[in-house]
Design a protein that fits this description.
nucleotide-binding, ATP binding, flat, P-loop_NTPase, mainly alpha, adenylate cyclase activity, Arc Repressor Mutant, subunit A, five-stranded parallel beta sheet, DNA binding, Rossmann fold, 8 strands
Length: 862
């Protein structure tokens, strides 16, 4: 596994090693919980050490009776004869340990050394005495002593604690804490795996060992290695301590000490013993497991009868006094564990409502699902209310399949109950979520059905929202400003009448968005609507509008606006647990990176969307399309399977709505040299667009017909496409350059003169657009234009991977784990240029991620 987020400690340790070689010597203590990566850091320091430094590595073992001076015995073969002789004498009783200490100190004085002693929390008394002896005398020898230990397994009475107290006064002793991985690092490791990165972080708390084990066996609820590690830690506990751990596992991850004391009498000593094994820890008046997966591993081993008894006891204790809102979820869980359906139906719906009001939609969905498992005894109206709540929570948590299924059932039950108002509202919600599910035609029909039902009743907020839904669909489906405005006016009138600010702001947003899509103006009005929704604290409305800005910016190929919109939307939506919107924004972000020519980053972002099990179909289709285009442009295989898979996730109307999906198929055909398919597919797309106003797609398709040698029809076209279709390739290229789209600018220049063709070729070569480079060279040959360069420079040809000097500079800095911005600052170039170089390095090395680059570089250095 890559050493993520360990750059600072590695920098410090290698610096201390270098300083120790010229004196004075030093002692470095690396500490952290089990699985945090202490050994990995030590191994990396060893690999980075100067070859002239002697490396001595020993370790302590978790033995019932530790080996006397066990680490020294491990490394003895690399020590001088006097040390080996003294050590042998000590083990046979013919020599005292202080003679070994003196000999080792003398040996370290003769040669610059790195002495590693791992896991000193398991050390015997003699080894601890050796460290105490060396630590005091280190300033006189050219050595770095590096010791590791688990700080979660040493308490006040542990023998290592006394040594640490002694070392506290030495200025040449340095301490390094290894922290758990951040959410971002866990998400990076999860890229390419079909797993929810946030759930992975929740289960592992950022522990690298647990993260790695889950990723290695994603289908297993509890990986075998984790289960065995937990069992090994529990094996040495007393019965009382094991009982405490079992009770804590049943109670949940964070347990107040008074609650534990209400179930077990005098648990303090047993709790201290349990904490000493590193599985649980006390934080003030709360005790918790270090990792949720550890708790689940313990819970799995608790007998069912014991679990039932604990749940019933806890439920009785918690119900005996006032119930706080924050305790509702626990009560619901204990009610289900206690086998008490009535209590489940009392607490689970209330817990779901409380979670939803806090924006915890995934928790709300889980609580509604819990209640629905016991809802058969409820009246139909109450059952349907639970289904509606479950659907809403699921949809906001990006559990679309479950949410749509519950809403369909709710529609049927409301119809059977004769509740037309709630039936119309359920139809409207169903329509809203069928669009991101890729079922745009059904979404349209369902939305019309909702309006038909509600128009037969007294006007209210429900009808306002139904008109708003049709306004949104008309915008997404590019029906034109007039169609959008018609529904918007009706929605605004009712929204103002019934004081629904969310309806008003969304209707105005989508009216402005329709103008932007059709006429190129309206961005400022959209921004004002988003800011207004966020200021009014209507998170669901604001999240939807923030996502809409991502789509609009990416669709119009505006690099700067896309970057800003995606960053805002992801931050806002993740903070409010609007996972569906956040994943949609992330998919738009991959599209934006593709437009900017940052193809490696675009592919990485797409993989993150695809690896998240909750990504909505439209987002997945967009990510697959981006991957397919990256593959096509780089001349790699498996392009059409990706595009076909994208098309299979959504209906054909959705491909037109998003724009990219249809255009990608045409471009892929052009890159493959299939000009007949280019014209046929583009003409088919334009025919379907005849009743829509979609200048960014119709203009693009017309340009592809022109590039394939055909005569494009007159269609609405966005500015850069209109300029190219009018023969102003220079104006089109300049417009693409201003938008931050180098690839599109190069394509426009293919219609230009010899200098323009050479500029296009240079850009495409920089982007590593192999397929487009081949097409451009063929075009230049046909026009009698020669490229300025005939091939790579001599230094590039001499490089085993074909890397240029600048690419080698970037490669070395990638190996240090630097970001694009940090590399740009180091090399005095722009981050965008760095992005192009990174893409070229990855392509030439035949890898897909920055982590693979670092790994490959590391292996080549060994």
């Amino acid at each position: 596994m890559d050493l993520l987020e360990r750059e600072a400690v590695l920098h410090d340790l290698t610096g201390q090693l270098q300083a120790a070689m010229s004196g004075p010597g030093r002692l470095a203590l690396v500490r952290g919980e089990a699985g945090i990566g202490k050994t990995a850091v030590v191994h990396r320091v060893v690999q980075l050490a100067d070859p002239q430094i002697r490396v001595l590595v020993g370790a302590c073992d978790p033995l019932a009776t530790p080996r006397p001076l066990g680490p020294l015995t491990d490394l003895a073969p690399r020590l001088g004869w006097p040390v080996r002789t003294a050590l042998a004498g000590t083990l046979t009783g013919t020599c005292r340990s202080n003679e070994v200490f003196d000999c080792l100190l003398a040996d370290l004085s003769t040669h610059p050394s790195l002495l590693v002693v791992e896991d000193i929390h398991w050390a015997d008394e003699a080894t601890l005495d050796l460290l105490r002896y060396l630590a005091r005398r280190l300033p006189s020898v050219p050595a770095l002593v590096l010791a590791t230990y688990r700080d979660d397994e040493i308490g006040r009475t542990h023998r290592l604690t006394a040594l640490l107290g002694t070392l506290a006064g030495y200025p040449w002793v340095h301490r390094h804490d290894l922290a758990p991985l951040s959410r971002r690092a866990v998400a990076d490791l999860a890229t390419g795996h079909a797993i929810d990165a946030e759930q992975l972080y929740h289960m592992s708390a950022g522990n690298p060992f647990i993260v790695t084990e889950i990723l290695a066996a994603p289908a297993e609820p509890i990986p075998a290695a984790v289960r065995e590690a937990v069992a090994g830690r529990l094996a040495g506990l007393s019965n009382a301590a094991r009982t405490v751990v079992n009770v804590l596992a049943v109670l949940g991850r964070r347990v107040p000490l008074p609650q534990l004391a209400g179930i077990l009498s005098a648990p303090e000593d047993a709790l201290d013993e349990a904490a000493s094994c590193g599985i649980v820890r006390a934080d003030g008046q709360v005790t918790e497991f270090r990792h949720e997966l550890t708790r689940l591993a313990v819970l799995e081993a608790v007998p069912a009868v014991c679990r039932l008894r604990i749940h019933r006891r806890v439920l009785a204790v918690m119900r005996s006094g006032p119930v706080a809102a924050d305790d509702l979820a626990l009560l619901a869980a204990h009610a289900e564990g206690a086998g008490d359906p009535a209590a489940v139906l009392e607490y689970a719906p209330a817990a779901a409502v409380h979670a939803a009001t806090r924006g915890a939609h995934r928790e709300a969905a889980a609580q509604y699902a819990r209640a629905l498992r016991y809802a058969d005894c409820l009246p139909p109206d109450q059952q349907t209310s639970l289904l509606e709540g479950h659907s809403q929570a699921c949809l906001l948590a990006s559990q679309l399949a479950e949410g749509v299924a519950s809403r369909r059932t709710a529609v049927k039950q409301r119809r059977a109950l004769g509740d037309r108002l709630r039936e119309g509202e359920d139809l409207r919600w169903l329509s809203c979520w069928l669009w991101p599910a890729g079922r745009t035609a059904e979404a349209r029909q369902t939305g019309l059905d909702a309006v038909r039902v509600l128009e037969g009743l007294r006007p209210g907020r429900e009808l306002a929202r139904a008109y708003l839904n049709l306004c949104q669909l008309a915008c997404y489906e590019h029906e034109g400003v007039a169609a959008v405005a018609t529904y918007a006016e009706k929605a605004i009138a009712l929204g103002e009448r019934f004081e629904d600010a969310g309806v008003v702001v969304q209707a105005r947003f989508h009216t402005a968005a329709a103008r932007m899509l059709s006429e190129g103006c309206g961005w400022e009005d959209c921004e004002q609507a988003v800011s207004g929704a966020m200021a009014r604290d209507v998170p669901v409305d604001a999240g939807l509008l923030a996502l809409g800005m991502c789509w609009l910016a990416a669709l119009q190929r505006d690099a700067a606006r896309t970057t800003a919109a995606v960053s805002r939307a992801e931050t806002y939506c993740l903070d409010r647990d609007l996972l569906s919107y956040a994943l949609g924004a992330r998919a738009c972000g991959s599209w934006g990176l593709l437009n900017q020519g940052l193809w490696t980053r675009a592919a990485d972002a797409s993989q993150k969307v695809l690896s998240h099990p909750s990504s909505p179909p439209v987002g997945r289709a967009l990510a697959l399309t981006v991957l397919g285009l990256v593959q096509a442009r780089q001349g790699k295989p498996q392009v059409w399977p990706l595009l076909e898979q994208a098309a299979s996730l959504v209906d054909s109307s959705c491909l037109l709505d998003t724009g990219l999906g249809w255009e990608a198929r045409v471009e892929a055909a052009w890159l493959a040299g299939d000009l007949e398919s280019v014209q046929a597919e583009a003409q088919r797309g334009l025919a379907v667009l005849a009743k829509r106003t979609h200048p960014w797609l119709s203009g693009s398709l017309a340009c592809w017909i022109r590039r394939a040698g055909g005569a494009p029809p007159r269609v609405p076209a966005a500015e850069p496409y209109a300029l190219e279709l009018a023969g102003d390739w220079a104006g089109a290229a300049a417009r693409w350059d201003r938008l931050g789209c180098p690839y599109d600018a190069a394509l426009s220049r293919l219609s230009g003169d010899a200098p323009a063709l050479r500029q296009a070729l240079a850009t495409l070569e920089t982007l590593r657009a192999r397929s487009a480079v081949a097409r451009t060279r063929a075009l230049m040959r046909a026009r009698g234009v020669r490229p300025i360069r005939s091939g790579p420079r001599a230094t590039t040809r001499a490089n085993p991977h074909g890397l240029t000097n600048r690419e080698m500079d970037v490669l070395k800095l990638l190996g240090e784990g630097l970001s694009d911005a940090e590399i740009a600052a180091r090399l005095y170039i722009s981050p965008k240029t760095v992005g192009h170089h990174v893409g070229a390095v990855l392509a030439k090395l035949g890898v897909h991620t920055r982590h693979e680059v670092a790994r490959k570089l590391h292996h080549s250095e060994r």
